[in-house]
Amino acid sequence: MNYQHQYTDGTHIHFPLGKVVCIGRNYAEHAAELNNPVPTEPLLFIKPGSCVVPAEGGFKIPEGRGSVHYETEIAVLLGKPLSNQPSEEEVRDAISGFAPALDLTLRDVQAKLKEKGLPWEIAKSFDGACVLSPFVPASQFPDLADIPVRLTLNGEVRQDGNSGLMLNAIVPMIQHMAAQFSLQAGDVVLTGTPVGVGPLESGDELVIELPGTTRVETRVL
């Protein structure tokens, strides 16, 4: 595994990298920009831990597999296991940190899979499909309904969202996930992407941030 969880101060987190649990179409404007209906219940999918790479130092995208889209998201790191029907207090206690992340998507591949009513894994789980930044301790985010997230691409702000715009708020979202399958320490939750997704090209320069707490410069190698 070429990724190890760490905090923004450089200290490492002493539990293994787990799975990445994602929620689709969690911002209404993003669903609209891709001509997707807004789900009536949380739309979940999973990326394997093997697809995670660090944002620092740059990252690669697949070649010859069609358009690769960025989706900037608030990532939540879990430091304790959750299962069945955890309470709000249990979920808050299990949250270890927050970070900006990129959920990369093979958009052309995904579109073909959706046309056939097939799962998205091939489009979402390739090596390098989850680009993670170091985590900020959860204690720095007293209001989970007001966490900003932003992507700047080649000097232009492309995505500028906030957890307050989510259709499924962070704690109820994680409660729902834990009711479907067990979550473990080291798992990461990607909470959905705001409007403004688009394609990446080799050489693109990106800044992903949770404004006011963490800012990471990276690039497509």
Short description:
The chain has 221 residues and is α+β, with helices and mostly antiparallel strands. The chain has helices at residues 28-33, 88-94, 107-115, 121-124, 170-180; strands spanning 20-24, 43-47, 52-54, 68-70, 72-78, 95-103, 105-106, 130-132, 136-137, 148-153, 156-162, 188-190, 198-199, 205-210, 214-219.
List keywords for this structure.
17% helix; 221 residues; eight-stranded mixed sheet; alpha+beta
Report on the architecture of this protein.
It is a single chain. With 221 residues, the protein is of the alpha+beta class. Helices cover 17% and strands 31% of the residues. The protein is built from five helices and 15 strands. The strands form three sheets. Strands 1, 2, 3, 5, 6, 8, 9 and 12 form an eight-stranded mixed beta sheet that branches. Strand 14 and strand 15 form a beta hairpin. It starts with 19 loop residues before the first strand and ends with a strand. The relative contact order is 0.27. The mean pLDDT is 92. This is Fumarylacetoacetate hydrolase family protein. Keywords: Hydrolase, Metal-binding.
